[in-house]
């Protein structure tokens, strides 16, 4: 079992980060007969994932994916198969940086309903944020306009994501993200309740795959399809090649986009709300910058304003760094033996990029890494010009880097700049008029998000509120 019992099971990234001081940037573990490599620094991660990507781009096998019907997902496809290459081609075509900007209008159009929901019903801000993210992903993926309330397709995805999160409880998913081999052991095989969940997940996965995809095909046939990733890719199908295989890949890549983009982007926006409450000075500074560029109340911010809003960009960078939403990334696996700095790394080793440790690297981020301090990213304070946000290790590295990163960045940016422009986010008050305390507390699991807290959204201008 080796180091197994020394681990903080629910938050293994903390143990790995602690071990960095003792064992360094590359930690080798042998557990349950398997080789694990934990990479604790961005420099080493780049040398392996980027510069030796031919070796470090495979994924480990995770048994529960098939059991729960999500083995179509791009995220876990083996590197050497033709399916993964086809999926990445589809994503590259639809979501590379130049393509992602074509969806800016979609994001701008959907931010106003978010602001209105926050104004009318602030206590359910988490639901509004999830709906905002879902409506963006459904629009750019399928050209589908989600219903203002209880959209059936969003409900399916949400139920599926919830079952997956429950089946992979925080403890279990944390262990599985660190030690996927455990999925092969009887102790981790689901019990009777989980078998029901698995059957329901398979049913939902079938719906998530087929229903929106078939709707796009129907709309194309009727000549009414909106521009989207799926309609674009179907139009580009190479008739000389296997049509069925290409359609299946488009369908699977599109469903992956929703599953991969929904929770991560929503969680980051929840963390944004929390950070703004805990750091009111940062909030005020962001608002002052926006007011200096867009005369207060005249209009809502848009993408063209972005170059003039460096502090808002710094808030976004700090959000990704402060609480990395997927602290251990998605595990990679080696496809042949390697030697790095004299250390042998065997074929089949599971490679974990400890993004948490990278986000706590004081040589890159300066001191007080536990604090939310956007200034650390501003040119005047940091010595070098910052890397693009899309290159942040939170989006992964090498050939498996997140293909949705440009779109995710755009969706999150437009939301935070508009929320800041429109509201002061403050602590709620109880019936005695006392402020309700808000703590920096997060759930554990493969992805982390703030534990539920309450807050108030105070409109910064009557005029803007009535315009919503
Ligand atoms: C803030 C939001 C997001 C974060 C933090 C995030 C993060 C990640 C990470 C860490 C990986 C694994 C990278 C690696 O293996 O090194 C990944 C993979 C992936 N992401 Fe994202 N992602 C986000 C949003 C999205 C969106 C919006 C989409 C789709 C539109 C998307 C689609 C994917 C896909 C398809 C993969 C699998 C790539 C592969 O295995 O080749 N993600 N993402």
| Unreliably modeled segments | none
**Approximate strand percentage:** 5-15%
Bound molecules: protoporphyrin IX containing FE
Main sheet strand line-up: 1-2-6-3
Category from helices, strands and their pairing:
alpha+beta
Oligomeric status:
single chain
The averaged pLDDT comes out at 89
The tally of helices reads 18
Commentary on this structure:
It is found in: Membrane. There is one protein chain. This protein has 18 helices and eight strands. It has helices spanning 12-23, 42-50, 64-67, 82-95, 97-100, 104-120, 125-142, 152-167, 170-178, 192-221, 229-235, 243-278, 280-293, 310-322, 355-359, 362-365, 405-422, 462-467; strands spanning 26-31, 34-39, 332-333, 338-340, 343-345, 350-353, 423-427, 455-459. A four-stranded mixed beta sheet has the order 1-2-6-3. α8 (152-167) runs antiparallel to α10 (192-221) and α13 packs antiparallel against α14.
